[in-house]
Amino acid sequence: MQYRPYGKTGIMVSALGFGCMRLPMIGDNVDVDKSIEMIRYAIDHGVNYIDTAYMYCNHQSEIVVGQALKDGYREKVYLSTKNPSGDPDGSKWRRILEHQLEKLQVDYIDFYHFHGIGWQRWIETYTVPGGPCDASRKAQEEGLIKYRVFSFHDSPDALIKLIDTGEFAGVTVQYNLLDRSNEEGIAYAASKGLGVVVMGPVGGGRLGAPSPEIQRLIPGGVKSTAEVALRFVLANPNVSVALSGMSTLEQVIENIATASRTEPLTEAEKAHVMAALEENRRLADLYCTGCNYCMPCPNGVDIPANFRAMNYYRVYGLRDYAREEYARLGRREVDGQPKPAWAEACLECGECEPKCPQKIEIIKQLKETAAALGS
Question: What is the pLDDT of residue 214?
Fold first, then answer.
């Protein structure tokens, strides 16, 4: 296992972190025995960053992680979890923290996140007098949490603002082959001494699906699409931990092998991947850049979402995932009425096409999308 510094904390963390959001389930309940086996196998093979959250796995993830960390395993890892409270009352934030300590059966948490914050939420809710920010400082002084960090789903500009508050030791942020929007923010965080944990390195499962197109990104062949995705993230020197949500022991074994490589990508491989990604982005932009100028559709079709699914299918070769995304599009509210958002709902009114700065033949491409992804 390779280890990297977590910002300026002095802590060395494993390149692979175990994300406990996708633990194996039996119905609505976590398969406790399998989960403990997987977590302990990972720790025994060098993983020392374990991440969970208050609501993961129907609120059961923290309980199972706590059980897995018994028998001396707690001392081998850095434990990360997240407080979801969006209430300006710091006492409510504190009650969740205390409940998490009980669920995890630990005396302290190493990396404690404000969960999924954005800039407006931070300044309007968290920083009020007596609010969560004040409560977190007090908990840190008491030794209940070691480092205050945050997870993030806002704009790249908001990421920079949150880093510049100077409040945080680290950030957990989305970054993968298909979504590089936070690349500059990740570099900025590292330059400011923050640890950077990447969530979704395998795209929330998208990049776990077989794709010859993605596997060809690395010359010489690889075992899986997921390997390419993980190696890409780990090739970024500003990343401290790539956090993978694993649900089988086989995934754990494969990801440990990938994270144990001395060099995730050679310079030649990195150059090849970046060139291929830029070409893929160019191809995707030929179809749709997601600017939303074509919206709203009078009949409820979610045009950018349809084309995004088609890009997964056509550009990245993620065919099964594209069909799943398409099926999830469901319905949009139009004038108070639910309307199908799928491409099949296009009535060819032509209202969208003059608005498109890319001059895309939207009606034609919606027909192609419906033919490829529809029922």
Answer: 60
Answer whether residue 281 is part of any domain. no
Q: How far apart are CA 22 and CA 53, in angstroms?
A: 11
Angle at CA 364, nearest 5°, toward 360 and 366?
Answer: 90
Give residue 301's pLDDT band: very low, low, confident or very high (50, 70, 90).
very high
Question: What residues make up the domain containing 310?
Answer: 288-373
* Terminal C-alpha separation, the chain: 45
- Count of domains for the chain: 2
Q: Tell me the C-alpha distance between 340 and 370, whole Å.
A: 13
Helix/strand/coil percent split, the chain, to 5: 45, 15, 35
User: For residue 312, which amino acid is it?
Assistant: Y
In a domain, 274, yes or no: no
Based on the fold, state whether residues 252 and 317 are members of the same structural domain: no
- Phi then psi dihedrals of residue 112, to 5 deg: -110, 120
| 157-178: pLDDT as tens digits | 999 999 999 999 999 998 987 7
Q: How far is CA 20 from each of CA 149, 209, 234, 245, 251, rounded to the nearest angstrom?
A: 18, 20, 19, 6, 13
pTM: predicted TM-score of the whole model, two decimal places: 0.76
Asked whether residue 282 is domain-assigned, the answer is: no
The pLDDT score that the predictor gives to residue 359 is: 84
Residues 307 and 163 in one domain: no
CA separation, residue 354 to residues 293, 294, 303, 357 (Å): 10, 8, 14, 8
Report the pLDDT value the prediction gives residue 30, as an integer from 0 to 100.
96
Q: Are residues 223 and 332 in the same domain?
A: no
Segment 237-287, tens digit of pLDDT: 999 999 999 999 999 999 999 899 867 777 777 777 767 666 666 665 556
